[in-house]
Amino acid sequence: MVGIVSSGIGSGLDVAGLVSQLVRAEAEPAEARFARQEAGLLAEVSAYGSLKSALSQFQAEVDKLGDADQLLGRQVLYDEENAPFSVSIDPTAPPSQFDVTVESIASAQRLASAAFVDSTSSVGFGQLTISAGDDAFVLAINADATSLADIQDAINNASGNTFVRATLVNTDAGTTLSLSALNSGSDGEVSIVSSGGDGGLAALDYDAASNTGSLTEIRGGNNASITVDGLALTSSSNTIANAVEGVTIELLREEPGSAQGVAVEFDQSALRGNVDAFVNAYNALVDTVRSQTSFDAETNSAGVLLGDNTLRNISIQLRREFTAVQGDALQSIRSLADIGVTLDVEGKASLDSDRFAAAVESGFVSIGQLFSAEGGVAERLGNRLTEYLDDEGPIETRTNGLNASIDDIGEQRVSLNERLVILESRLFSQFNALDSLISQLSNTSAFLTQQLAQLPGSTSNNG
Fold first, then answer.
1. Which pLDDT score is estimated for 32?
2. Nearest-5° Cα angle at 242, 240 to 244
3. Distance between CA atoms of 64 and 66, rounded to whole angstroms?
4. What are the residues whose beta carbons fall under 8 Å from the beta carbon of 157, sequence distance 6 or more?
5. How many CB atoms lie within 10 A of CB 77?
């Protein structure tokens, strides 16, 4: 707004105050209208934001139901506290029941050299061929690096060495080179053959097959041995996979002759939890829709999206998918109603526990197919939700339109302010002109009064 200084000097009128009031009278109705429109649009944007959030949460639960492995979870039952092994299972492990006995566990070989004076003691130079199973590497021990410490470093740093580690151990007798196989079982046992040089490296020779040589075997590389339902099997590792389909057994200790029972079962409680979460997320969505479309007759107040076509179409389409029937007529589970999930007259979902338990008992896998199969509940609902939540979907399109309208109000405010500046300037010009006119008239009146007072026969007011 522009201001004119010293207005009303000639007339005594409060020109600035009059102009301010007239401009405000012009602005207030428009500003009030803009505020009402903007508040309504912002409320709709917020309502669509709440709807989008509820749809996203529902979509997350639907996606879980589309993953058959996650939906049809398994659980393994055994005495975890006392069993000499631990058990893990694949998501698709078939139900099974078996006994496991740990006769022996796998161990890694450990070898030790004779004692030397200390780590700087020279062993010799030449070549060492070190092998374990099908793996091997060759070390060239140079004449200027023949100490026990040099050989330890050469072994540990050798390219191709993935199966043995060397360690120096100081004892009362001196320093010993200890060699530890990194792989357990007989296949991990290490052999060393020296050749060439001064012959000193023969102090490290060892033949794993005959258990002979200069090194002493402190511990052999032993295979694990277990029985599953009385059937024996061995393993070079303490991790035994697929002795039973989908089951991995990790051996912890030996308990010969002591059988422990293991059962793999469908996890019915997890399935119930997934379906409960699905129902709850759908009901949260229904509550969100209801809060945005309700009408309170007592207070005569309506939800922000009452009568909104976009929201009504979403509700109708989801309800249709929720109640659809799929699959062959001979199947016992073809709809959500068949597992006890139904909608009431208000559109809220509920899960009948007895009916669900009966469905689980008769067709656990069929429930998974109801949700996760091609054309199943998860795919149909998921497609709908993806359509609604897409960047070019109805919610985003409607929200973009609302935001555009809000931006337009901002532009109208700018335009209004520009008009008010012009109006204020015009009013100041008009009132200043009036003030100047009144000043001139006042001056003329004073002059005339003075002249009349000087005419012959005039009577002074002071007389």
1. 83
2. 110
3. 5
4. none
5. 12
Q: To the nearest 10°, report the CA torsion of 218, 223, 229, 230.
A: -70
C-alpha dist (Å) from residue 369 to 6, 69, 266, 376:
86, 11, 15, 7
The share of the chain scoring above pLDDT 70, in percent, equals 91
Could you tell me which of 82, 90, 83 has the C-alpha nearest to residue 241?
A: 90
Closest by alpha carbon to 164, among 186, 140, 137? Answer: 137
170 membership: H or E segment, kind and range = strand 164-171
Sign of CA dihedral 374, 377, 379, 383: positive
Cβ contacts of 30 within 8 Å, gap of 6 or more: 412, 416
Q: Cα(440)–Cα(132) distance, rounded to whole angstroms?
A: 120
DSSP at 107: B
CB atoms under 10 Å from CB of 144, counted, come to 8
What are the φ and ψ backbone dihedral angles of 232, each rounded to 5 degrees?
-85, 145
Per-residue confidence (pLDDT) for residue 71, from 0 to 100: 80
| Helix, strand, coil % over all residues of the chain, rounded to 5 | 45, 25, 30
Mean pLDDT for the stretch of residues 263-288: 90
Is the pLDDT at 329 greater than 50? The verdict is yes
Q: What is the mean pLDDT of residues 288-305?
A: 72
Burial class (CB in 10 A: 0-12, 13-18, 19+), 241: middle
pTM exceeds 0.90, yes or no: no
DSSP string covering 319-370: HHHHT---S-TT-S--SGGGGTEEE-TTS-EEE-HHHHHHHHHHHHHHHHHH
Tens-place pLDDT, residues 49-97: 888 888 888 898 888 888 877 788 889 999 999 999 999 998 888 889 9
The neighbour count for residue 414, using CB atoms within 10 Å, is 10
| Mean of the per-residue pLDDT values of the chain | 86
Interval 400-423: pLDDT, tens = 888 888 888 888 888 878 888 887
**Contact partners, residue 24, CB within 8 Å, separation at least 6:** none
Give the DSSP letter string of 185-216: SGGG--EEEEESTTSGGGGG-EETTTTEESSE
Contact 46, 288 (CB under 8 A): no
